[in-house]
What does this fold into?
Amino acid sequence: MIDAPLTGTRPAVVQERRPGRLAGLFHRSESLRGYTMLSPTMLVMAVGILAPFIILLAMSFWTRQGFEFDTTPTFANYARAMSEPIFGAFLARSFWVSGIATVATVLLCYPMAYYVAFHVHRNKMLWIVLMTLPFWTSYLLRVFAWKVILGYEGVINSALLSMGLIDAPLEFLLYSQTAVIITLAHAWAAFAILPLYVSLEKIDRSLLEAATDLGDGPAWRFLRVTLPLSMPGVIAAVFLIFIPTTGDFITPALLGGPDGAMIGNLIQLQFGAVNNWPMGAALSIVLMLWIATVALVFLLVTRKAQERLA
Amino acid sequence: MSDVSYIRRPNRLLQIYACIFLIVLYVPVLFIPLFSFNDSIYVRFPLQGFTTNWYADLMRRDPLWAALMNSLRVGLSVAVISTFLGVLAARAITRYRLAGQNALVAFIMLPLVIPGIIFGVALLVLMSRMGVPLSLYTVALGHLIVCLPFAVATLLPRFEGFDRSMEEASADLGENPWWTFWRVTFPIVYPGVVASFLLTFTISFDEFIMAFFLSSTDATLPMYIWSQLRFPREFPSVLALSSIILLVSFALVFLALRIGRLGSVRKPGAGSNGAD
It folds into this structure.
């Protein structure tokens, strides 16, 4: 039924069988064959990534005229994004919330990944599957699960009430930044565990023995050998969590309440109820630029820190 | 264990932490099936008694079945196409030495580090400017972008450990490239292909953000759930539906991960009992 994109892959196959000069060139050049084999995937990615981004960028310079767009390029949307404090506030809150969630996730997952990498000797695969299985279930369902747990009449409140520990439901649980942070940290745990585990597993155990032989205690051994060597995993985990969660709008929409809404909700509104697509496009671009900036700063800082440690 | 050294010494504290970690990881998800059997419209303690009414209620919902069919169609198509493209890409990347290879791989992995909402709106803008009406096809295109990194990431390790002398032997013995691929290459990478298929299907089946921006009136299953979440009285039915989805997703992924490791780490006694 939905095999339309498949037709995009046909030319490569046809080309491969076409006889003559082209085929001769084909068999002679190894890398040409490689590129041809790669081209269907690249074509799909170009259609699905490059083209949309170019148009998104173009649209961010347009303005809305009723139900149409005025395509004269202008910086009006960006000027608005800078001048109106609400945009800056939402952006700052998004970075704050997902920053906390990222740090919490990485800190909580590190010991777990460490445990599996260093202390589990049999059935490692089973542990990895166990740790990552919940991640494969619908994100929406996991957020929904937290709504069930944190709700005004949810699991925690009703359990505490029926045990007589509290007299009235705790209101700060649902519809708050706390709820968003807890949910994000839980939902993205697998994205921290996998890279952390891989980088820890790769560490040459003889280095640890050497550190011990040279007189380092467990704490120093960890700080001077294990931690620096697992930094690539930490950096990967931070990126894999921080970047997607900054733009998240499901969790804030379901659990955030008024002061938990994030920039993603604002962007979604521009494409939905507010119906100002150019503004939404500009906000998306601003979000991406900020993410890129924060990511670069983070990379530089960790690199500097590593150099100082070494 | 024979080789217990100061590094491998069991750490009681970490063990306890690991157990708590797994419990915290699973308990929130397990509340969904628990309350789906609860005989009350309110999701709260104390539990009111066992019922399967909410499951029976699902049978009477036609939009739900339509949404399920939509999700299956999109999921299967996306799984087939992304796995096929993933095989081509993984093969090309591992078989040939290509200039700019790392940049190409990074480009494929790009969707992992860009917020989903940006992909969603960018594709939405592209579709509307090109005059393509939103449909399940546009949802499938969005899912394809999301799934390709996972397909390639699953397949690359299978192709990387590939011994090319096997193919050369096959060629020397007179097989043409096509049959070499089917009789030598494919059987070796087959577990990766199945794993990639199941994983991409699961991702597409559960995907919400792309579907949110790119679907029209044909809802996928997550879109249907989203539309029901606004009504508190629909909660128990959503819980029942979610439980079924959870069960199927768990089964599929478990299968995918098991098949994916077939032949790569087959050890005697593996999987017979829990670790430690």
About this structure: Chain A has 16 helices and two strands. Residues 1-18 of chain A have pLDDT under 50 and may be disordered. Strands of chain A lie at 63-65, 68-70. The radius of gyration of chain A is 25 Å.
